[in-house]
Structure formats: structure tokens, C-alpha cells
Amino acid sequence: MRAAAFTELVGPKGVSIVERPTHEPGPGEAVVDVRACSINRHDLWILDGDSAMVSGDNLPFVSGLDVAGEIRAVGDGVSTVDPGDRVVLCPNETCGHCRFCREGPENLCESFSLFHGGLAEEATVPADRLLALPDSVEFTTAAAIPTAYMTAYHMLRRAEVGPTDLVFVPGATGGVGVACVQLADVLGANSIGTSSSAEKLATVEEMGLDHGIEATDPDTIQAAVEQIGEPDAAMNHLGGEYTDLGLSVMRRGGRMAVCGRTAGGTSEIGITGLFLGHKQIIGSTMGTQQDLQRLVDLTAAGELAPKIDDTYPLEETADAFRAMKERDSVGKLVVTA
Ligand SMILES: NC(=O)c1ccc[n+]([C@@H]2O[C@H](COP(=O)([O-])OP(=O)(O)OC[C@H]3O[C@@H](n4cnc5c(N)ncnc54)[C@H](OP(=O)(O)O)[C@@H]3O)[C@@H](O)[C@H]2O)c1
Ligand SMILES: [Zn+2]
After folding, report:
1. Distance CA 28, CA 24 (A)
2. Which of 4, 131, 192, 277 is the most buried (most CB within 10 A)?
3. Angle value at C-alpha 44, between 88 and 17, nearest 5 degrees
4. What is the value of pTM for the model shown?
5. In this predicted model, what pLDDT tens digit does every residue of 249-269 receive, in sequence order?
6. CA distances for 242 relative to 116, 142, 194, 234, 246, angstroms
7. Is 237 in the pocket of ligand 1 (CB under 6 A)?
8. Which of 176, 183, 286, 335 for mutating ligand 1's site (highest number of atoms within 8 Å of CB)?
9. Average pLDDT, rounded, for the chain
10. Which domains, and CATH codes, for the chain?
11. What is the number of the ligand closest to the CA of 147?
């Protein structure tokens, strides 16, 4: 079988199509014929050599978390899925026995990690991480959901976003950003989003963004947000200078969920406004398998339409990463096998 492997950690030109042996499933495993796998900034960090998880010693490395496809074979002891089933993978990997696995939520697991290997024609996965996919949900749509939408949904839950809340989403045009906007809308909340591109913002406005701000400079964004209102919550996947911006614009008692570092892994924040304003900063990573189940159900019910910018055949995986790196897309980029 073919895989789009990272053979050098030098950005998109480091992706090569390689031949890999096919697998037979071990106990508890399923082999999935991958139909679609979306990419995330997480994969791009690895490909750029900017992740502690993968080094030159681990190459070639097959990334790709968000697998949707059809089950080809199952191993001993698997009773929840059968060959031929249409499925989507929850990429969470947990130990199953630490206090957080026992008590929940599972994404707090002390050994939390993620599945990698979806950028290929087949993926061998733990069968109990597969969710049945209703016929009404296409593989490409399903592949867009796990990492971006689960993360966004969990952030909105952690920040206790509810009806009529105003949610601030700096960087509202990417995978997590668009998901935050769409899911805020599902929850009955309103949103303010930012982007460097008026054209991309217009697309997100068609999908439910209430207020778009075309700017990247925090002072300009702050002035524009102040014209709109005081956000109850901020969904911060950018980090860097956007953390203090989010804190500054939120109302007293506002909650900011943080999941990423695209604009920088460190942030300087104003402590005084944080404590005088009773504000909260909440770290959040991925979500639970039950979060993903809800998102698949919402999609099947027609209440959520995950935004896919474009699809790429496996051999053009490098182009998908180029589009992400060049900030040339709105929503998710999906590789099809
Ligand atoms: N902790 C977790 O569980 C988890 C899960 C998923 C994602 N994440 C993190 O969340 C972040 C977003 O991931 P993603 O897959 O959604 O990425 P993505 O699709 O590439 O995000 C693109 C968005 O980021 C903005 N952006 C890109 N580079 C920027 C920069 N230098 N300064 C300001 N804005 C910039 C873009 O703005 P423009 O519109 O201006 O181009 C666009 O809105 C990443 O840091 C990722 O690692 C974390
Ligand atoms: Zn655990």
C-alpha cells in the first residue's frame, strides 16, 4: 500500500509517496481502507521539524490523525465493528487505567497521545476508537471532524459558552477557527473572528460568523472588537500576542480557552486585568470520544456542515501542506486515498 510519508523534515517538499507492507490486524485492532484523512497544523509542525515528537531518527514518518474509511479486517476480540463498516477514527490514545481514564474526561489521561498514520491507503487502528459513520455523512466530511471540531467543541464546553454569548475567535479561517465559529452558532452564541484576508472572512461570514475583523495587529483588533461589544469568551488557538489581546477584550469574568501556539509558544499577559476582572485562562487539548460522537450526530442531522476548503489525492499531499503553510485556505484540507 502507498503512504504519503515525511521523508525529510523540511516542509511540504519533504513529503514522498512510499510503498509500505499491508497489515493484518492484531487483537483489538481493525485495518481500515482509508478513504479520506484531513491534515492539521499539528502535522505541519512535524513536517517543518518543529515538533519534539518526531526527529530525523524517526523517518520516514506517516502522519495523519483524522481517518475516515471502510473496515477491511478486524482482529481477535473485536466485537464493536465489522468488515465493510463505514467508520471515522477518534485519534485519542489513552492508557485506560489512570485516574483520569477512570474518572474522565479521557483527554486528561496521564499518557495521552494521538494516533498517526492516516496519510496512507490503509491504517491499523484500535477498533474501540472507531465510530460508525451514517450513510448520509461522506468520508471527506467525516475526516474533517475529529481533531479540529472535537478540539473546538471541547474548548467551547470548557469555557461554558451558551446561548447569546459573544465569542472572540482570533484566526477564524482555519480548521479550529472555523469550527469554533460554526459550533458557537450551533450553541446559540454569536462570534467575532479575525483574519488577514477579507476574502476568507467573507466565506466564514457565510457560514455563521457574525462579525469579521480584517486585521492581524492586536491594537487594531482590540479597537474593532470594542466597537462590537465585550466578548464573554475567547477561543485562542494562536497564542503569542493574541493571548493578552483575548484577555483584554473579554468582559469581567470572561473565559479564554487556549489550545495552540501558531503565533507563538509564549505569551506575555497583563496580570492586573486578569485578577481585577476575575478572568480565566483554560488550557484545553483535543476532546473526548463522546464529543466526537456528538459532532458526527450533529453532522448526520444536518445541523453542522464541516467546512472543507479542498481535497487532494494522496500523491498531492504536499500541495495540501503548501496551502496550509501559505494561509491559502478556509476550513479543512482533506487528502483522499
Ligand atoms: N491542543 C490541541 O488539542 C489542538 C488541536 C488542534 C489544533 N491545535 C492547535 O491550534 C492551532 C490551529 O490549528 P489548525 O489545524 O486549525 O491550523 P490552521 O488551519 O492552519 O489555522 C489557520 C488559521 O491560523 C491563522 N494563522 C496562521 N498563521 C498565523 C500567524 N502567524 N499569525 C496569526 N494567525 C495565523 C490563519 O489566519 P489567516 O486567516 O490570517 O490566514 C487562520 O485563521 C495550531 O496551533 C494547532 O497546533 C491544538
Ligand atoms: Zn489514562
Report:
1. 12
2. 4
3. 75
4. 0.98
5. 999 999 999 999 999 999 999
6. 29, 30, 11, 10, 6
7. yes
8. 176
9. 98
10. 2-145+306-336 (3.90.180.10), 149-283 (3.90.180.10)
11. 1
